Amino acid sequence: MSLFDRLTDCGILRKDGAIIKCMEDYIDGFQVSDKLRDMLLNTESDDAELYNSSERAELLFCIFEHLCLGGAMNQFEDSIDAYLRVAKLIYKDLVRAALST
Hints:
It is a single chain. The protein is of the alpha+beta class. The chain has one domain (2-100). It is built from five helices and two strands, in the order H-E-E-H-H-H-H. A two-stranded antiparallel ribbon has the order 1-2. Helix 4 packs across helix 5 (81-100). The chain is globular and about 45 Å long.
């Protein structure tokens, strides 16, 4: 999960895993109220280039992004821990399923 270590280094997360809030905005129909979602959705964000296109195309990153962005009825987490834990579990299940076929 070292792929996500840089989220703390650049100021999107606090050292305890708390996601840093920002002014609320809407981008492509998504509510953006923290720096994590801003990085994921806002191409003009200071952190938009934190991950290059090949990193963003990785399965683990795509799962993580979908979990973070959610949908219309999504209840956001204030800490990154739940997103990382569930992304890891889904990733492992998908890889295991792919290997067993």
